[in-house]
Amino acid sequence: MADTLNQAGLDTSSGGPGDKPAEKHHRKRWLIPLVAFVVLLVVGGVFFLLLELRKPGPASVGDAEKEVEQASAADSGDSGSSALRPAEGVYVYQGEGSESINVPPLSQDDGSEMPAEVIHHGSDCWTFKLEYNSAHWEEDLNCVENGQLVQKKSTTFQQWDIVTEKLTNTTNFTCESAVLVDPSASEGESFDQDCVGTNSDVEGETHTDGPSTFVGKETVRIDGKDVEAYHFKQHQQISGSGQEGRQEFEMWYAVDTALPLKQTRKITLVTPSPIGKITYTEEGHWEVSSLTPEHSG
Fold first, then answer.
1. pTM for this structure?
2. Which long-range contacts (C-beta less than 8 Å, at least 24 apart) are formed by 126-131?
3. How far apart are CA 213 and CA 200, in angstroms?
4. H helices of the chain, where?
5. SS3 275
6. Which of 17, 92, 108, 251 has its CA 20 to 30 A from that of 260?
7. Residues 6+ apart with CB under 8 A from 292
8. Which helix (H) or strand (E) holds 142?
9. 3-class secondary structure for 191-205?
10. Model confidence over 245-283: pLDDT tens digits?
11. Which domains, and CATH codes, for the chain?
């Protein structure tokens, strides 16, 4: 210990009769802030280590399979694929991404593998629930109407573990006009998307609106095979309840079943909170690993 303090330039001698009281007092004044600084470093380091250890891991494919099994048992309808409706089951997506807030500075990463459950609801509707990680998922209700695939509802759940407690946030949106796929669309044609929702942590309503533009048909390589896809770009503004932001998506849907094949996304949102305005950012991409579900309904 003495060697360590000597290396730091501190006199470790006990002092003798010739030492002046002012010199001893000077040493104490140096030691007090030094000890306090070391304690802060240790406490802060432990806290941030705990934050890292508590970050969510990949979502469980097994849990996703159980959800599909339970849904299939409750609905004895056709689980196969049809136009604008993929076969029921669990699909595994691969990719990377992250979400973060600036105050307090927290971030979490998407799993390298992300399970998604496709569950049928009647003959014309199906849900697509993608689990980015064990603490972040999004579920969309899509329906076939007038030969188009439209989004009716969207629910997103997130959880942030800050060691002392777990903060959760849920958003629920309904859409009056949100065309996802129109097989008869011409290249460059746009469709307005207008959705209204609520946030569990923010009072009032939030609006998302903007165009979805059909880029055209493209060939996407999935599991070593060429797959025809509809390519759409979405640009949406977020407003209401003191929130302001923008989200951009690129989506590729299988031509025969409308199964989501690929996505890139970028979201920036400034939102009020109990500690003032915070900025939320999200960015990432994913791609389905196989057109055949790992677990069928």
1. 0.80
2. 126/85, 126/86, 126/88, 128/260, 129/64, 129/67, 130/93, 130/286, 131/59, 131/64
3. 31
4. 2-7, 21-53, 61-74
5. coil
6. 108
7. none
8. strand 136-145
9. EEEEEEEEECCEEEE
10. 999 999 999 999 999 999 999 999 998 877 788 999 999
11. 50-296 (2.40.360)
